[in-house]
Design brief:
The chain is mostly helical and 370 residues long. The protein is built from 4 helices and no strands.
Length: 370
């Protein structure tokens, strides 16, 4: 809804144009009726016809209109500059407020850490309940870069590091969405239940980190080291894990639907009952990986290595295993309807009798069931 001053300015502008036009028209009519500019001298001039009057008044009219348009453009430019200046001032003020809040938080947390026997206190004592409340409140107000700074501070202070013996500060439900943690060292960090949607954790060090039930939808974990990490029932839908190291990680029950695991290392990882529908696992290392009862519908496992992998009861319907190495893999009870196995290495594969007629391959057939 337009403000009253702006509506009044617009009304005055329209009124001015109407008055100017009416004035020009009046001059033409009056001049024609009264036969102005016809006067008697030694040379008698003919009376002006309406078209003559119009020609005489075109230039002033054009100049008047151009002036009005110029004034309007100048006013719009001034309003635009003022609006941008106000927006910048608001942005700067908000950024200053966030920085002030962060510094106040760091100061208060430093005081808590320096209090006598604070680290020896149980995680559910009043001092750490206050620290948790301060942390959760602050994180909701910060931008992505400062969220990363807070998390790094907590980690380096030993408050969320299991190497310290226990996690002192509970970050479950902490809003770390969009946090900039590119290349951060968070090995052995306890981030169970944290909200890390769209966070940048590319190239981060998360070895043996606890990310149980954490929400990492759309997060960038490309090239991250998650070896030995626990991500049971974590949500990683649409996450980018290309080239990530997940060797020996526990992802049982995790939801990775639509994730990018191209070239990832998942050797000896636990993915039992995990959701991997339409996942990109091209060139991934899944040697000795546990995938019992995992959902792999329409997953792309082209040229992946699954040597001695356990896929018992897994749903591989319409999955692509073109050129994959399945030597020694256990596919007993797996759903293989519509699966593509052209060029796959199936030596020593274990399958059930009823699965044989559901396997479609162009280059080789599975060995007889044992």
């Amino acid at each position: 809804m337009q403000s009253r001053p702006r509506r009044w300015q617009k009304t005055k502008h329209i009124f001015g144009i109407i008055v100017a036009g009416a004035g020009v028209l009046t001059l033409v009519i009056v001049g024609y009726k009264m036969n102005w500019i016809r006067f008697s001298t030694q040379y008698s001039l003919p009376a002006k016809i309406p078209w003559d009057w119009i020609q005489v008044l075109i230039l002033p009219a054009v100049l008047t209109l151009a002036t009005l348009l110029f004034i309007r453009a100048e006013r719009n430019n001034r309003q635009k500059v003022t609006r941008l200046r106000n927006q910048n001032e608001i942005i700067i003020a908000a950024d200053n407020q966030r920085e002030t809040a962060l510094q106040a938080y760091l100061h208060r947390m430093s005081e808590l850490l320096l209090e006598k026997n604070s680290r020896a206190s149980a995680p559910d004592t009043a001092i750490w309940n206050i620290a948790r409340a301060l942390t959760l409140t602050l994180l909701r107000r910060l931008d992505t870069g400062r969220k990363g700074s807070v998390l790094q501070f907590l980690y380096e202070s030993g408050l969320i590091n299991k190497n310290a013996g226990k996690s002192i500060l509970d970050l479950s439900g902490a809003d770390l969405s969009g946090a900039d943690l590119n290349g951060a060292n968070l090995s052995c960090a306890i981030l169970s239940g944290a909200l890390l949607m769209e966070a940048d954790l590319s190239e981060a060090h998360l070895m043996e980190a606890n990310l149980n039930v954490a929400i990492l939808s759309g997060a960038d974990l490309s090239g991250a080291n998650l070896s030995g990490a626990t991500l049971t029932w974590a949500i990683l839908t649409e996450a980018n894990l290309s080239g990530a190291d997940l060797s020996e990680a526990n992802l049982s029950g995790a939801n990775l639907n639509g994730a990018n695991l191209n070239g990832a290392n998942l050797s000896k990882a636990i993915l039992d009952r995990a959701y991997l529908n339409e996942v990109d696992l091209k060139l991934a290392n899944l040697n000795e990986t546990a995938l019992s009862e995992a959902k792999l519908k329409k997953a792309d496992l082209s040229e992946a290595t699954l040597r001695s992998a356990s896929l018992g009861g897994a749903d591989l319907s319409k999955a692509s295993l073109r050129g994959a190495d399945l030597s020694g893999a256990d596919l007993s009870g797996a759903i293989l309807s519509g699966v593509e196995l052209a060029g796959a290495n199936l030596s020593g594969v274990t399958v059930g009798t009823q699965q044989m007629d559901k396997i479609k391959t162009r280059t080789m057939a599975l060995p007889h069931p044992r």
